[in-house]
Design brief:
195 residues; elongated
Amino acid sequence: MQNDAAVLILMYFILPVWLLAGCADWLCHRASHIETTSGPKESLLHLLMFAELGLPLLAAIFLEINAGIIALMIAAFILHEATSFWDVSYAVSQRNVSPTEQHVHSFLEMIPLMAILFIISLHWGQFQALFGFGPEIARFDLAWKEEQLPTGYILSVMAAILLFELIPYIEELVRTLRANRGALVPPKARTPKNR
């Protein structure tokens, strides 16, 4: 399956672009001085969204894709969208969300959807079975992939996630907590900014 064009697009285009968009978003937050505007509350929302999509990403990398994993991906995407709406609603009331950052957000919202659609196309029988259609029986078991992704690829992806996603967003949280002496919301952020 690793020679399938859809799998190669997922591995070498969609995932890298998604990681770059996440790093670009962190740079946008840094440029807008999140530590003195929206503070740790927004930073915690970013980490929550990271976790919401990180779990299905790990499942896609290590586990056999079946109806259960597809259901997890769909549910996580919907939850991520709700959290994203909460995040942006709060952010725009506290700081300037630049056109560049808005454009980055469009990538961060659509790339996971694109990835899920590629995965569904590769596992159409299990997607249909999830809703009671098609010839396959829906499977919900957790099993390691029979054909694991190359070890070098997995290590590279994990290193990229650590270096370009997890460490920057933890740095953001630490920076916002320090700037606000541990308070979740900066003093001036407790009232919405005037429009």
